Inverse folding.
């Protein structure tokens, strides 16, 4: 529902919601509040009744926003763990490849380096746009074809090859989980509930019988805080997108440490 907003910096998202929520509240105080007061006939106990309703409604809205905040944060953590798991499986396979004989050793290591480059340079930018990258599947298939050509000749090689095949299976499962996470998001119906709840809270505050300046200050503060909560949730929604989105740090670390250092060692060898 708010997909395009995730592409903005966090402070831009917050500023947009601050202007929207506080601006709407202040405009309503000027133009709509007088009509609401006339409609409700300025009852003597109106503030007490509205205050009670506003307190109950605020509790419901707070629970909803709290649950959405936790969900968005948990989505970020879970996706980061998925990416870290996949990078860990690739690292384990790469280390196992060191014990394979040539030429299979160089071939599978080259395929793994190609895959990591693909994830960092091609797949992640597509994921940030909400697109599931499919080109990496061919790299995985080519790697599996190269690996399965190998015929172990000793008991040690059989154990090593069996362990590597198991890691490849776990790697592909982690890759599938990473791709499925591209479409993780807070459902539109929940966003509708949030904005409906904010609208009801705003209307109830307009009805309160207070001086206009008090409305501007107190209502503006509440609207500002409500806008901050909604803006933070929006910024955390879609775990691959935006400034708070999960970055390919696990794969970058793998490439910069294990893979690049290994390649440099091979080039430096006499």
């Amino acid at each position: 529902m708010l997909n395009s907003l995730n592409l903005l910096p966090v402070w831009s998202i917050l500023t947009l919601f601050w202007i929207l929520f506080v601006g709407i509240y202040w405009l309503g105080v000027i133009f709509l509040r007088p009509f609401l007061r006339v409609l409700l006939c300025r009852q003597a106990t109106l503030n007490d009744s509205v205050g009670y309703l506003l307190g109950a409604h605020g509790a419901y809205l707070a629970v909803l926003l709290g649950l959405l905040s936790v969900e968005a944060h948990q989505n970020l953590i879970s996706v980061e763990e998925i990416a870290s798991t996949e990078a860990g499986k690739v690292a384990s396979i790469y280390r196992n490849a060191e014990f394979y004989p040539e030429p299979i050793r160089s071939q599978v290591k080259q395929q793994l380096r190609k895959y990591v480059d693909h994830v960092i340079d091609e797949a992640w930018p597509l994921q940030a746009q909400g697109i599931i990258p499919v080109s990496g599947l061919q790299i995985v298939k080519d790697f599996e074809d190269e690996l399965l050509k190998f015929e172990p000749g000793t008991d040690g090689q059989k154990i090593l090859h069996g362990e590597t095949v198991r890691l490849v299976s776990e790697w592909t499962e982690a890759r599938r989980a990473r791709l499925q996470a591209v479409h993780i998001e807070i459902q539109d119906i929940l966003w509708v509930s949030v904005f409906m709840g904010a609208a009801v809270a705003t209307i109830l505050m307009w009805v309160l019988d207070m001086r206009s300046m008090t409305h501007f200050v107190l209502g503006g503060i509440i609207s500002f805080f409500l806008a901050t909560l909604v803006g933070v949730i929006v910024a955390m929604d879609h775990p691959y997108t935006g400034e708070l989105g999960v970055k390919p740090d696990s794969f970058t670390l793998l490439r910069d440490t294990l893979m690049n250092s290994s390649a440099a060692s091979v080039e430096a060898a006499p």
